[in-house]
Design a protein that fits this description.
Oligomer: single chain
Largest sheet: 8 strands, mixed
Helix content: 25-40%
Radius of gyration: 18 Å
Strand content: 15-25%
Distance between the termini: 33 Å
CATH superfamily: Vaccinia Virus protein VP39
Number of strands: 8
Number of domains: 1
CATH class: Alpha Beta
Shape: globular
Length: about 260
């Protein structure tokens, strides 16, 4: 599979073959590559799979991979794009995973939990569908290093907050971090600078009074404006790839928190 083949850009979902979003897509791919070592020869559920590019990456190593998303339209795209004998996509709400009537060795949940108003029902469902000894692997933005507000994010977590949330359902929790090199951090800081310049046009915070659909429509377009400006000022950021990220124990310094949870 060409790892640049996925993505639907709505402001919430990525367009993977767009150079403007190469850094964002690479940041997502890091988590799936990390998870590949966990799913080798096992069954995996990709909870919140989007258009399915990551589930297909997992299926390259897993005995069986199932991707679920609440959007029937998105699942239809995934089924059309990615086909393997051990790969399946299904429409399912994250708080109803038990409706799958299935169990898995691993549940992956990447860059989704920050979108949930109440993540606890999902966490309980994830534990319910995990086989004994199974693991839930989560990534989510680290609020300490989140430079741009995102209208799709209900809550971004600090490491301690995420651990407290997960401990309501899971007994064993390890928190790691997805970190970027200097080139990645330059890109992220520039995103923050450019976004703040745009937000100065709204000093009274009137955007917070607008209908959500209007804010999301504007965010999708402004995200492209921000990245075009960065690429004009810092052309090298278009070359950001998976190798510009690393996973380690320094969660506080990370861009994304990575949690491994066991019952």
């Amino acid at each position: 599979m060409d790892e640049s083949a996925g993505g639907i850009f709505t402001g919430e979902r990525l367009v993977a073959d767009d150079l403007l979003f190469a850094a964002d897509f690479a940041r997502h791919l890091v988590a799936y590559r990390f998870a590949q070592q966990w799913v080798r020869g096992k069954s995996v559920l990709d909870a919140g799979c989007g258009d399915g590019y990551g589930t297909e990456l997992l299926a390259q190593h897993a005995a069986r991979a199932v991707g679920v998303d609440r959007s029937a339209e998105t699942i239809a795209v995934a089924r059309q794009r990615y086909r393997r004998a051990n790969l399946e996509y299904r429409v399912c709400d994250l708080h109803r995973l038990a409706d799958l009537h299935d169990s898995f060795d691993v549940v992956s949940h990447f860059q989704v939990i920050e979108h949930l108003h109440d993540p606890v029902p999902f966490l309980r469902q994830a534990r319910q569908v995990l086989q004994p000894g199974g693991a839930l692997i989560i990534t989510t933005p680290n609020r300490l290093n989140s430079f741009v507000e995102n209208p799709y994010h209900v809550h971004e977590y600090l490491a301690a907050e995420l651990r407290q949330l997960l401990s309501q359902v899971f007994d064993q929790i390890e928190i790691l971090g997805v970190c970027g090199n200097d080139k990645v951090m330059t890109f992220e800081r520039q995103r923050g600078v450019q976004a703040k310049r745009i937000l100065r046009l709204d000093p009274l915070g009137l955007r917070n009074l607008l209908p959500r659909r209007v804010v999301e429509w504007a965010y999708a377009r402004l995200a492209r404006v921000v990245r075009r400006r960065i690429h004009s000022a810092e052309p090298g950021v278009t070359a950001i790839g998976v190798d510009d990220f690393s996973i380690g124990n320094d969660a506080e310094a990370s861009l994304d928190l990575l949690a491994i949870c066991r019952a």
